[in-house]
Specification:
About 40% of the residues lie in helices and about 10% in strands. The protein is an alpha/beta fold. The strands form two sheets. The chain has a seven-stranded mixed beta sheet. It starts with about 25 loop residues before the first helix and ends in a 9-residue tail after the last helix.
Length: about 350
């Protein structure tokens, strides 16, 4: 769209912030199906699913009260038993009947061996691209992990599952907050207190999945000598005329639209920790943005891009802030009355 052309990456031509739109169709069948889904089948389906999800949410709140009295090392185990099934049910009620999970390799002709590490342990880093709050629910169902909020200086702050849902796709708050620490501190604490793995979305905000954003410098301090176990995940949603990715607009309306559709396609690809490893060879590679993102950040960015077969853009979380400022302004005043501030 011309009015948002300022946020089209000049190097790749990708516009990573706008919701995807289906191609225009003059087919009568498409019009009938749209009418049935939007006005006949969608509303009752979404209502029924809302009720089930609300019931699960109430159970989740009660279980969190129970977890308060459970001592540290057992808290994560009991929490995983509580939440794994419930979070997967939420995904089911949102239309994710089947999630295609694939262990992949980037080396042609390479076969996986039984010795390769795929298990995820306390203090491990799970790095992934970010498109939707659905990402949060998926990782919650799999690992009961630690979620972090990333600031513009690379510091992080541990946040709860509900805070992660709230922050995901919302206006990126990049100024450092009280309680912010380095990712290394979070890793150390998670290992010692057995809090689970740490999920990191280094882009710092959501995209429509067409390209990767510049990473925030959360990995800048890391070197190959650091004792870390890295797991690189990549999530992709098939676009069938409705967006699973969430970048702008009302989160509740987006959630309603997900629940009103019968099925969504989600593919999760991941590399083994051996293939993801950050060693001296990876650190010596001259990768774009390594000065800002750090060698580890540039290494992860390269792996995610290769797995998803998408390109890296020159845009980042600060550009998303400016985009949302402009998007919200033109929706209040109209396009003709608003001038770009940049």
């Amino acid at each position: 769209m011309e009015k948002y052309s300022h946020w089209r990456d000049s190097g790749t031509g990708i516009q990573p912030f706008l919701p995807l739109k289906p191609p225009k169709s003059n087919s009568a069948l498409d019009s009938i199906l749209y009418f049935l889904n939007t006005f006949i089948l969608g509303p009752p389906l979404a209502t029924i699913r809302f009720i089930f999800i609300l019931f699960i949410f109430i159970i989740y709140l009660i279980q969190n009260l129970i977890l308060i009295i459970i001592p540290g090392p057992l808290k994560w185990i009991v929490g995983k038993l509580f939440f794994s099934c419930e979070a997967r049910l939420v995904l089911l009620y949102m239309g994710f009947n089947w999630i295609d999970s694939q262990k992949v390799t980037l080396t042609r002709g390479r076969k996986h061996t039984k010795k390769e590490t795929t298990s995820v342990n306390h203090g491990d880093i799970i790095a992934c691209n970010c498109q939707s709050y659905v990402d949060i629910i998926y990782f919650f169902s799999k690992f009961n992990p630690v979620f972090v909020k990333i600031f513009e200086d690379g510091k992080v702050k541990q946040i709860s599952f509900l805070e992660a849902i709230k922050n995901n796709g919302s206006y990126p708050e990049l100024k450092e907050e009280e309680g912010a620490v380095s990712l290394k501190d979070i890793i150390k604490e998670s290992k010692e207190q057995k809090k689970g793995p740490i999920v990191v979305f280094p882009e710092g905000t959501t995209t429509n999945g067409k390209g990767l954003l510049k990473f925030l410098p959360v990995f800048k301090e890391f070197t190959p000598k650091d004792d870390i176990t890295l797991h690189v995940y990549s999530i992709k949603y098939q676009f069938y005329g409705h967006n699973v990715s969430y970048t702008v607009g009302s989160k509740f309306v987006h959630f309603y639209q997900l629940c009103s559709k019968i099925h969504h396609a989600m593919t999760v690809k991941y590399l083994t920790s051996e293939e993801s490893q950050f060693n001296d060879i990876a650190a010596q590679a001259e990768l774009p943005n390594s000065v800002v993102e750090g060698q580890l950040g540039a290494h992860i960015s390269k792996l995610i891009g290769q797995v998803l077969r998408i390109r890296k853009t020159g845009l980042g979380a600060k550009d998303k802030q400016e985009f949302l400022d402009y998007y919200n302004e033109i929706n209040k005043k109209g396009y003709k009355n608003v001038k770009k501030s940049k």
